[in-house]
Specification:
This protein is about 35% helix and about 15% strand. The protein is of the alpha/beta class. Pfam families: Bmp.
C-alpha cells in the first residue's frame, strides 16, 4: 500500500466529515477541450519515495503513458502533508491538466484546491467517495482483494504450523480489505490457521516492520503476509515464507516470497487520461478499475515456487480466478479491522 505516517487514529473516516456526506457523482465534464493528439500535462504528488509499493505502481503506469507519448509527466516525492496543498497549487499554476496523488491525510485541503482550479482534473487516492460539489475531483483506491484472496489460497497450502503473521501499516480500509481477503483465502484451504496481526503505524518504516515480523516468527509463524517493506527481509533471515502485496518481489527473495497480489494502475490512469482528453472528466469513483475483471490486479506467477505449491491448490486458484473474472464468484470487500485469532 502507501504514503507517509499520518496523524490520524484507527480510521481515516474522521478526517473528512463533509466529504462522506455526499457520494453522488457529478455528470458535468471539465470545461474546455484538450486536443487528443497532444500529450497531456500530468503531475503527481507523492508523500513517500516512488520506490514504495503503492506509489511505485502509480509511477509505473504514468511512465508507461509517458513512453507512449500520451502524457508529459512530472512528480514530487516525499511531500509532507503540511506542504501538500502548496505543491498542488504550484502544479495547477504551471498548467498541468491532470493531477495525481494520494490525499488520505489532506482530504479537506485537496478538495479545496480542486474547487479553486475547475479546469484541472484531479485523480486522488482516497478512502472517501466523489462529491458532486467538486465535479473535477475523482477518487481511486487499490481494490485488489481479488488477488489477495488468491494469494491466501496459496498461503493456506504452504503454512505447516498453521500460524501466519501479518504486518500492516495502518488499520484503514484499503489495508483491512486486503488482509481480510487474504485470510478468507487461507481459511478456505486451512480453516484451523491462526493469525498474528500487527500494524506498525507507518507507511514506510522497514526496520520497524522487520522487528514486528521477527516477533511474529518467535510466536510460531512460519509464513508472513508482507503488506509492508521489511517483512520479507525478516522472513528471509529466519528461513520462513512470505506473501507479497502490490508488487512482485520474488526476484529479490527467490526462496522466500511464494506469491504476491499485484496492483495494476494502468487501467485507472488510462481511463482518466482518455476522459480528460475527451473533455468528459467528472467526479467519479475509479476504484472499479482495480478489480481483477478490469485488469487492475492479478496474482503474480509462482515462479520459483511453482513446483512447490500443490497441484490441487494451483487448480483451485485457476478455477477461482476464472470465476472472479466471469462474475460467478465475488470476493467480499471487508473493510473492518482484522483481529488476531
Amino acid at each position: 500500500m502507501h504514503r507517509n505516517p499520518f496523524n490520524f487514529g484507527i480510521s481515516r473516516r474522521t478526517l473528512i466529515k463533509a466529504a462522506g456526506a455526499s457520494a453522488a457523482v457529478a455528470a458535468v465534464g471539465l470545461p474546455g477541450r484538450v486536443i487528443a493528439a497532444d500529450p497531456l500535462k500530468v503531475a503527481a504528488i507523492y508523500t513517500v519515495p516512488v520506490e514504495q509499493q503503492w506509489v511505485s505502481r502509480i509511477h509505473k503506469a504514468a511512465n508507461a503513458a509517458k513512453e507512449r507519448g500520451d502524457i508529459e509527466y512530472v512528480y514530487s516525492e516525499n511531500t509532507a502533508n503540511n506542504d501538500y496543498e502548496r505543491v498542488m497549487r504550484e502544479y495547477c499554476e504551471a498548467g498541468h491538466k491532470l493531477i495525481l496523488g494520494e490525499v488520505f491525510g489532506v482530504e479537506d485541503a485537496a478538495r479545496a484546491v480542486a474547487r479553486d482550479y475547475p479546469d484541472v482534473a484531479f485523480l486522488m487516492g482516497s478512502s472517501f467517495k466523489p462529491d458532486a460539489a467538486v465535479p473535477n475531483f475523482s477518487v481511486f483506491d487499490n481494490y485488489i482483494q481479488d488477488a489477495s484472496y488468491l494469494s491466501g489460497l496459496v498461503a493456506g497450502a504452504m503454512t505447516k504450523s498453521k500460524n501466519i503473521g501479518m504486518v500492516g501499516g495502518y488499520p484503514i480500509p484499503e489495508v483491512n480489505r486486503l488482509m481480510n481477503a487474504f485470510m478468507a483465502g487461507v481459511k478456505e484451504v486451512a480453516p484451523d490457521t491462526r493469525f498474528q496481526i500487527a500494524f506498525i503505524g507507518s507507511w514506510f518504516d522497514p526496520p520497524k516492520a522487520k522487528e514486528t515480523a521477527f516477533a511474529q516468527i518467535d510466536g510460531g509463524a512460519d509464513l508472513l503476509y508482507a503488506e509492508r517493506f521489511g517483512v520479507s527481509d525478516a522472513a528471509k533471515e529466519k528461513n520462513v515464507l512470505a506473501i507479497g502485496n502490490v508488487i512482485d518481489t520474488q526476484a529479490d527473495y527467490p526462496e522466500t516470497v511464494v506469491a504476491s497480489a499485484l496492483w495494476h494502475f494502468e487501467p485507472t490512469l488510462d481511463k482518466a487520461i482518455a476522459e480528460v482528453k475527451a473533455g468528459a472528466f467528472k467526479a467519479d469513483d475509479y476504484g472499479v478499475y482495480s478489480l481483477m475483471k478490469n485488469g487492475g490486479c492479478s496474482l503474480a506467477p509462482l515462479g520459483t515456487f511453482d513446483a512447490k505449491v500443490p497441484d490441487d491448490v494451483k487448480a483451485r486458484v485457476t478455477e477461482k480466478e476464472k470465476a472472479i473474472k466471469d462474475g460467478s464468484f465475488t470476493v467480499e470487500i471487508n473493510d473492518a479491522e482484522p483481529k488476531s485469532s
